[in-house]
Please model this.
Amino acid sequence: MRNTMTWKVGFIVLVVGLCVYFYLTRGVKLGLDLQGGMHLVLEVEAAKAVESAGQHHVTDLQSTLKDRDTKPIDIHMDEQNRIHITLADEAGLVTAEDLLEDYPTLERVSTDLKSFTVISRLSESYARHVEENAVVQALATIRNRVDQFGVTEPVIQREGDTRIIVQLPGIDDPERAINLIGKTALLEFKLVDEETDVSEALAGSLPPGDEILYEIERDPVTQQVIKRTPYVLKKTTLLTGDVLTNAEVRIDPQFQEPYVSLSFDKTGARQFAKITGANVGKRLAIVLDGVVYSAPVIRDKITGGDAQITGAFTDAEARDLAIVLRAGSLPAPVNVLENLTVGPSLGADSIRKGIISTIVGGMLVVVFMVVCYRLSGLIADAALLLNLIMLIGALSYLDATLTLPGIAGIMLTVAMAVDANVLIFERIKEELRMDKTVRAAVRDGYSRAFLTILDSNITTIIAAVVLIQFGTGPVKGFAVTLSLGLLISMFTAVFVTRCIFDLILQRREVQRLSI
Model:
């Protein structure tokens, strides 16, 4: 008997010690509602990724036709993402139709023999693949950006088909964070169409295959747009930011202004050299998210694999631009559907009120147990204290997030924990009324109340597990602390209190139990 009790006491001390250790070394991670921060719901415009994939096909088809000595009169994509290829003659039309057979991602829609035009579009299966991949890639890109932004313990997860949940605890600059996360950062190099007059294009005479984009100049203080310079650009993208290996902020030694230096990989450097070599004397526009940052004249072939983005940047803007370019561009734009910001002061107030409510509720439970069950009530209160210590330790070990609803779950756990002891104590009283000895009454009280306690706790735990699986946000936070608390209460309310009673009863023959 003595060896058994030594083992039980040692096990309890070990478990409590580990819980204290986990709390002291890891601490409890607080949710947004307790420490402040941002909760964003983003939606990926997956249809834009499909449009971009179609434009890539346009560029590739144009290049391949040129390699086959067939130059199309016109090749462009319409608003329905259909690719129109117009050839000069029937021979060119046959070549284009044969070429489309080599593209399993495209399906032919129709052929007009009079105008020598063939129309194709992305296949449905490939379009769905592009949309799915856009969301997956956006998730990874946003995670990379947040990691470089320096937010500790962020939560970034997918919700539904096209939505992404982003939680940034402790963030102190919400506007900057939204700009950083939501920036598409689609870097494109396009030729300026210098044969088209800008004023005529603005009046409506825009040639097929061209587009109008603007260079925007902002006031450095107010950030208001003070000038918009239009450019007529070729829609065809010659190079994108996918071939970047690095982007970093540097200072212009002449004007002492920051700019972003770009470095291409081997493929990108080769393509950039080819582009600049074939277009000497022309203007190459550097476009980021549909805005022209600069359009310098190509003076010579550039073989070093480097380029730069200049503009009226502040230091923070240049750093953020470098971050998003290093992390990669989003495959499609994202929209902020929901933006909830909790200030640190509100979070601190929630913590204070949560602690006060837990202490007040706990003290009322302690007083109730002592008044109703005297010394036995004190034993239950000691087990309740161990319950709270072990619960905090378990949250620390599991790296779970404690939220305000989680504190409510702790409060409910306190009530459920003493509820088990109430059942046991009432059962012991019944056994004592049957003139059993104290030792026998305690033994039978625990054994006969155990099944009832087990049944009530398991049904509640099952409901909590369902909430964890299917609930989100506050519901999940409540369910996590409740389920952990109930599992721990099974240990403290039954095993720990029984161990204390056995220690009392084994030392001397107790004739009367204070209960």
